[in-house]
Structure formats: C-alpha cells, structure tokens
Batch of 4 targets.
Target 1
Amino acid sequence: MLSSRQKEEREARKQRILDGALRVFQREGLEGATMGEIAHQAGFGKATLYYYFASKEEVFCAIMEKGWEPLWEGIESVIHNDAGPRETFIEIIEKIVEITLKERNLYRFLFSAPKAVTNLPESHQPWKKYQNRIYGVLTGLLEDGMAKGEFPKVDPQLLLRAVGGLFHGLMFLGNGQEKFRKKDIDELISKFLATPGPVEGEHN
C-alpha cells in the first residue's frame, strides 16, 4: 500500500506530465505531439511517462477531464438554488468565469480543443459526460427562460452558441485582468441578446 507521501509524489508527477503535455498540445496540436516531446517537456524519461499514460491520446483525455470535471462540480450548488431561469443561467456563467480565471491557460486550450478530437471515438472522450451535462443544464435554463419571457424565443442551441461566443471573447480576447461580477455578465448578455435586463438593484 502506498503511503500518503508516495501518493502525493505520484500526483505531483502526473501533474508535471499534464503541464508539460499542455504546452506540447498548444504548440503542436494532438496530431503533431509525440510522447517523446511530452516526456521532455515534463522533465521525465519515456519510461516514467508510459508508467502513467499509455498514449498521447490518454494524456490529452486526462487534461480535458481535469478541466471539465471542476466546471461541472462547481455549478452544482447554483443549479439547486431557488432563483428563476435567467438568474440561475447568469450565476452559472459567473461560476464558470470564476473557475476559468484560476487556470486561464488550461481553459483557453480546453475550449478550443474540440477541433482536435474529431478522430477520437466518443467512448474515448470521458470528459464529454461533464460537458454534455453542463450544456444540457444551460439549454434547459434557456428553454425555461423563453417560456417565461426572460430570453428571446429562438433556437436554444443557437442562443447557447451565441452566449458561448460572448463568453470566449470575455475570457480570452482581453488583457487577462478581468474580474466579472454577476451584474456585469448580465448586462453584457442583455446587450448581446437585445433583451430587457434585470430590474436595477436586483443583483449585487
């Protein structure tokens, strides 16, 4: 049985591998990356790398899961509040912003990575279970909000992609120093969607 120290050392080595692999994937893409380059970036030999991961695809999946799982877990408390659809939607975006800002480099890669995984079968994309649940929650809130007149009545998938584009611009096209409050996010979405915003003073 491994001691607590050995477990910590194992996790530290895995994190070094993921950090090194992220740099390689950002530079070379999934197709151009090699296990040798990942090992070099992590500061390990190939033997150590293969002890933890069988392939570059497995490393890639570990990075993706490392990003998507905290997003899903982070919004759980927001989902179960008693607010209306629009307010809950805004609070979820606020929480995602908060988590993303802590590891901006990881999430910049995470949100652009789907372009690189077209050749991976669905069964080899374990992070999809978190991604699909988040999208499902947001789509459900948009549909409920449309029924209550809180969002315009359009295709919720198109609306979600539009909000996703806004989010990407907020997070990754600025100077990296942004700190968004719920009111800021709500106002930006209101302007973007050309829908009525909240009553003044409703949000902090």
Note: The CA atoms of residues 90 and 185 lie 7 Å apart.
Target 2
Amino acid sequence: MLQALANKPEEVLWVGSIGGIENDLVSRAGVPFTAIPAAGLHGVGLKVFKNFWQLLRGYFAARKLIREFNPDVLFFTGGFVAIPIGLAGRKVPTVLCVPDIEPALALKTLSRFADQIAVPTPDSLAYFPKGQAVTVAGYPTRPELKVWDQAEAFAQFELSPDKPTLLVTGGSLGALSINRAMISILPELLGEIQVIHLTGNRTWPEVEAAREQLPDVLADNYRAYPFLYEAMGAAFSAADLVVSRAGASVIGELPQYQLPAILVPYPYAWRYQKINAEYLSSKNAAVIVRDEDLADQLLPMINSLISDTPKLKEMQSAMGSLATPQAAAQIAELLVKIASPQGGAQ
C-alpha cells in the first residue's frame, strides 16, 4: 500500500504514534514519516487520565501538523493515532482502509465522518450502515512479497522438494503458545515433514535451545528464524501448509500464495482474529484450532492435512480464489479520486 501511494505524483506523509513500530517499516518503504502522541482510552485509575492527556496532546499536535502539511485527503488504517488525527482533520476529505474484516474501534468511530471506506471482503459490509460509501477493495499486500519459483524457494532454505513442508508463524511479534506447542511436537513431526519456523524475538531463545537438542537427522528438516524479511515470499512459496495467527494479513497474503492454513486466533484481544479465521474457514481455505486446544489438536491436525493431498489441493484452490492482487492500486486510485476537488466534495 505504501509503495502504491509513493508511486503517485502526489506528496505523501505518514503519521504514526510516538514509540510505534511503524517508523522503520514506513521509512524503509521510502515514505516520509512523522509521529505524534497517541493512546487508547483504556485502563483503570490514573492510566485513563494519562491516556486521555496523551490523546489531548496528540490532538493539538495533529492540528498543527494538518495546518502545516495542508493535506487534500486523510487516509486511515487504524491504530490509536487515528483518533487525534481524525478529530483534528474532520473537515478534510477522508478515506478509511479497514484491514480486518471487522473494523476496530478507532476506524468504527471515524467511519461516520469518512468520505470513502475500503474493506477487505464482502463480509465487512455488514459492519457499516447501508448507504455509506464502502468499496470492497481487498487486502493490499506488500510488493516485496513476490511469489517465488518453488525450486528457488526450496534452495533458499536448503530443503528438499520431495518432502511436505510446513510453515509456522505467529505474526511480527511471534506467538508464545504456538511456539511452545511446536517445540513439544518437533520430535514427532520432523521425521516426515520439513518445518520453517518463524518465532519472533520473545521465544527465540527457547526455540533455539530446543533446536540444539534435536538429533541431526531431525535437525536437517528444521529451519528456525526470529524473522524473515526479503525471504518471506520464499517461505510462503515453499510451504504446503501454514500454522498461523489470524491477523489481518492472512486475508491477503495467504490467498496470494494459495496457501492452506491452520489458523489459531489470538484469544486475548476482542474478536478480530476469530472473525478473520472464520471467514477463511467458511471458504474451505483454512481450519481453526483454538489457542487452548493447541496441545491436544495441533499435531493430529497437521498430520491429517499434510498427508491428505486431495484435501490440501482443495484448500489451496479455495484460498487462491480469494486473492485480490489489485487491492493496493485500487485503494491508491480511490485516494487520488477523493483528494480531487470533485471527489472530496460532499
């Protein structure tokens, strides 16, 4: 999405929250970045007042920023920073991009003022009143996530093209419960299956220690990394099946690679991941394992699917049918249209 905007002749400024993780990602994409104070209105006692003060500071910082930058259109993808920017820029034409199927609270709040809302799937339409300007654009994937030639993907990880390959990932921060469940089943899994395991930083020492305890014959089938950047497309391309959380990116990235999934929604935050997982499951592209059932169900579910080639082919086809390769370009065109004097008029 950032690259699609950066390729337009218009000037772009990305605004994030102070201390947020997006600064590095946005800067690497070549898009100018600035940060303002932001916080959610959650917590108890003094934390509520502290967060409110942060939002108030963010609002005045946003007013100053909007006066100086003088944008033709505001573009929101969610996060705490959306509220102060949205309030300060309520007279500026606005486009929302909803990443999950259900909009989070900040986007839901701002949606009543938006000129246009881009959503990832038709199921998202149920969360907005009839008559709102909502476009089903799909989920915009990163251009660096190219689909690799499968032989090159296997060569990237020094894996065999003749063995089934499982990718395990918990998202950008990793997933403690998935990582620990994987550690416990590695000796049973690696006899017949190759595994690419992306752990995140938090449990990397545990995973690394478990890898060192594996016999050589099993370790030869196991590739573990805290993160992958340029080679993430290779991991998707090499895999026959993925075990993953169900953050918004699964709606776009897994269809792009036609990759069947075992989805484990994160259980400690509202229901966004659960709804994402249920959407892909309803299309026969994924199966769901609850976080609390990982210890009992993960190994038999992996074995059942990875050994059932017709079932995997069916899921692969179903997942591929959900791909939206033009999503980023469509949303970028929408922004340009709304930013024009005719498009932004209400």
Note: The mean pLDDT is 90.
Target 3
Amino acid sequence: MPSWGTFSQSASELSQFGHTRLTRSVAYLATVRADGSPRVHPVTPIISDDNLFVFMEPTSPKGKDLLRDRRYTLHCGVESNDGGGGEFYVRGTATLIEDDTIRQEAIEASNYNPKERYILFRLDVNFAFMNTYDDGSPNVRRWKAENI
C-alpha cells in the first residue's frame, strides 16, 4: 500500500487539502467490527512528511478491529451543514507500528504528547476523496493508487 508520502507526491494539491482538513480538528476513523458491521471512532490524525498515523489506547476497540481487519476509512470533521471548509477522506490499510524510529517520527509530527502506553498505527492510503462547494456546486476530486 502507498504511504501518505507516496500519495502526496502523486497528488500534491489534494494531499495538502487533506492534511489541513484532517489535522484541523478531530477526524473520524471507521473500522470493521468482528461481526462485519461498521464502527466509527473520533481520532487525532498525525501526518509526517511520509506517513499518516493514529495513536490509541492499547485496549481501544478500534485497535482490536484494525488488528483483525486492517481496512479503514478516515474522514475529516465537517464544520457546517453546507460543507464548511470542505470534505476529505482517505481509505486503505492500517499497520501496527512497533519500530521505535517510526514511533519517534509520529511523536515529532504530533501536535500533542502521546502517552507511552499508546499503540501506534500507520495508515497507508489507497484512495482519497475531497469535495468543496463553489457557489453551492460540488467540486469533487479523487485519487486512487495505481495497481489497486
């Protein structure tokens, strides 16, 4: 799966918009429960030059979901009923990170101080979507990784 960095190199303007939307406030991570139904969680995404991350408590249901089924969707918060500053989401697969060097990358890119007990997932990106409104008309852009 492509990293955030690969996505950013392929679709710079779209990734810049996504970076702004995902890191402005709480975003929503969708995972798949064991019974196949969806689950949604508020998260604080972290974006470094190369990667998209989320930290979480080790007992979090979202972590258990991602360990069992790596698929996710991450959607920004939307500010108002008319689309606010725009809509953005990515989807792909999550990987539990246990490498201290990569963990340090996430900590340095974070706008908060993650607790040592938190576990870390890297979210690879295989699809991105944005929608803004120009005079009430939707302006949709999409990106899809090659060979997916």
Note: Strands lie at 27-32, 38-43, 46-47, 52-56, 71-75, 87-97, 119-123, 127-134, 137-144.
Target 4
Amino acid sequence: MSPLSQAVLDFVDLFESRAIQYAIMGGLAARAHGMPRATFDVDFTISVERDDLPSLFDAAEDLGYTIPAAYRAGWVDQVSGMPLVKLGVAIADRSVDVDVFLAESPYLREVIKRRCREVIDTGHVWLVSPEDLIVLKVLSGRPRDRIDVQDVLFMQGELDRRYMRHWAEQLGVLPRLESALQEFDNG
C-alpha cells in the first residue's frame, strides 16, 4: 500500500472511530470526480470543535503522525480564508502531508452536508461533492486547480451551476468560476 493510501486509511478510521464528519477534498477528490492524476498529500475538511483538536492530535501522534508545535499550542493557519491545521508522517521513507481544514464557516459546513460516499482505492470514503470541489479549486486558483476544474466538468456532465455560483459569489471568486465555466462551455 502506498504511503498516501495508508494516510487516507489512518485518518478515515480515526475520524469515523470518533464520529467526526469529514470529507476528502483536493487531489484525491479530483481523481475521483475528474481524471486520474498524481497527488502527494491528503486534504480533509472536518467538523470538529477547536477544543477537541488536542485529543485528535494525540490520536494522530499515536498513529505515528507529527503535529508541529505551533498547532499543538493552538495556532490555526488560514488558507484562502479557511482555517487549517497540518499534520505529517514519514511512511516507508516517504513524507506525507495531511491538511485538515476546519469546517467552521457556513460554506465548509455546507460542504460537509453535501458530501458524498464514494469508493476510491482505499475503500468507501466521504468526498466533497463535485460542485464543492469545483468551488474549492476555483477558490485556490492555482494552475493545477484550473485543470482539475475542467476535468471535473468534463467527467461529471451536468452539475448544479446555481449552487456553485451562489458560493463562488459568497467567497468572492464568482468571476473566476464564470471564466472556468465559459472555458468549458466553449471548449
């Protein structure tokens, strides 16, 4: 089993054993909803109180994961306006990053509500919906994300554009979403 797959299994089991609602996002979700591609980290969003993070960190450390001291001390990073904690592990001489976004905003709480149960190479897991993956990729806006958006649109067919437009507007990225949709429609 690859180190990445092992990390997915570890965290899915950890979240499910603690009844923590989660959804896989990022490259793994892009592979499931779009085209197969390489990815080297695992991205989750989870519904957990910040007061419960130390207990979660303890459990992750018991599995061999490391938590940077800043996160242990209560610091929470922000990426594209979303709260994030990072964990890491070395499995078979390979480092795997695990990024955990905290579902504290109205949007990320909605992402958790709309998650879908899918089968990936590690088994049954919860993934962000294709629509939410597109919104998250547009929010991130890196070149790889723009490719992922086009792949998901191509593979998924008809998606709820009204929903995507609503959240893209709320998150301040509606012009980027419209550009991606126009590129797909004209492609």
Note: The radius of gyration is 16 Å.
